[in-house]
Amino acid sequence: MTPQIENRRSTLLLALAFLAMVVGGTVNLVLDAPIRWTSPHALFEITTIVFGFGLALYLLSGWRGASRALARTRRELGARKEERDAWRRSARKVLDGLAREIDAQFRRWELTPAEREVALLLIKGHSHKKIADLTGRSERTARQHAGAVYRKAGLAGRAELAAFFLEDLMLPEAELAEEGGESDAPPGSLVRRGVLHGMPLLLLLAASWGACGRSAPESGAGSGTAGAASAPASLPDTVRVAEPGLYPEGVEYDPARGRFLVGSVTRGTVTAVRDDGSHAALVRDTAAPTTMGLQVAGGRLYVARSDVAAAFDSTVEGRARLGVYDLATGRLLRGVELGPLWPDGRHFANDVVVDSAGNAYITDSLSPVVYRVSADGTAGVFAHDTVLGGGFGLNGIELDRAGDLLVAVDTRRALYRIPVAHPDSLSRVRIGEPLRVDGMVRRPDGDLVAVATTFPEGGDPRTELVELSSRDGWRSAEVVARAPLDRTAGPTTVALRAGVPYVIHSHITGLGGDEPVRTFEIVKIPLHRSR
Questions:
Q1: Which of the four pLDDT bands, split at 50, 70 and 90, describes residue 104?
Q2: 238-524 sits in which CATH class?
Q3: Whole-angstrom Cα distance, residue 523 to residue 531?
Q4: Which has fewest Cβ within 10 Å: 62, 184, 436, 520?
Q5: Read out DSSP for 150-164?
Q6: CATH class for domain 109-166+191-214?
């Protein structure tokens, strides 16, 4: 029984009790047949009767009003339920389709089942503590899963995660004009002004997402076989970029927006490229003429900026600069000059990697140093050693699963591990064959995928895509997969998309020719483990 019904019944019983008191008092007064109606006894009983009757009428009036209000509320609730059920029936197909798309996007981000579960709860607005309670995990684990979601999606946090699915949601403009007249706000701003305006929609999606998402098979992201067998069938084999003279050396994939990002050794730009080859400049910063390594992290784009002339002309001092940009707009957030930190050398910032705390590490190919730029913009020399130099030395850089650095040194044809806690204790990774590694990327399972020049015994050097695996924290490693690359196309580095490697063809050998190279390719290169 609800409290409202209980209160109504109590009011009715109290009113009836007062009416009984009035009847009893009246009978008693008549039977007494007082000689004087103005006697104290008679006046007391008359007053009691009148007071009881008035109070009974008051209570009965309240009971009647409460009954009417309750009936009205029941009618309104019934109407709302009918309206809600009708909306759900009419929107079911749309909701089911959107739920599948959300789950598909989670898989494109290569989220594990646990991360997908946490991502949905984050969208629903739950705190890390609440997520821990709902999933039976510790709060620390919930935070780690949340961080992994943001990192894999290339988003800054919970607000951007919700905005990713809601930013284009808006009411039909014609209906808005009919109901509220013209607005000064731009189309869609009713939603974009606040992500939470759209949150109820995602709450309604939770049940249907759970049904279609948790039972689906894993995408295979991060598997040692490159995920080629389980990757989406719609992945393109080749993306062609028709932009004469671009010469893109670096490539990164932005999973949140479904686009590749490529640099330019001649223009210092970063270009966003769609699967159909359509492209547009995202970053037009002219602070340095060359863009090399790219890294998407936390809703930002980190770019190693240089001057390509320094790689070919020893009289050019070169540049080493880190550019940090808004991933959505390309707006410059921070520019940090690194060359002055090592004033005795020439400079060529080559590659960049960002850790979970927002610290960026940058290699300098013409000086034996690795720079670090903290999340607040503080820059310094993180590691330096003569083994990292000698001609064109440092090249690609990555983080292993423990958070330590792996750097490629061209002159040594080797990889080196640099412990973040003790950068002076760098050591060479024992591989068993010489490798001159250019760009590289780490899989979720810890393997490295790299564009490398290999040196087979008794044969000519080859350009290959290799996958390296380590079982001892990168004290040693072995090549577990390899695929040939077209050396004449100038392959330089690799990005992962749904677990599948894509290699950029920079055509850098055509730089300085009579006619600029007109088309550049981003090519899917499946890898298969050696048996």
A1: confident
A2: mainly beta
A3: 25
A4: 184
A5: HHHHT--SHHHHHHH
A6: mainly alpha
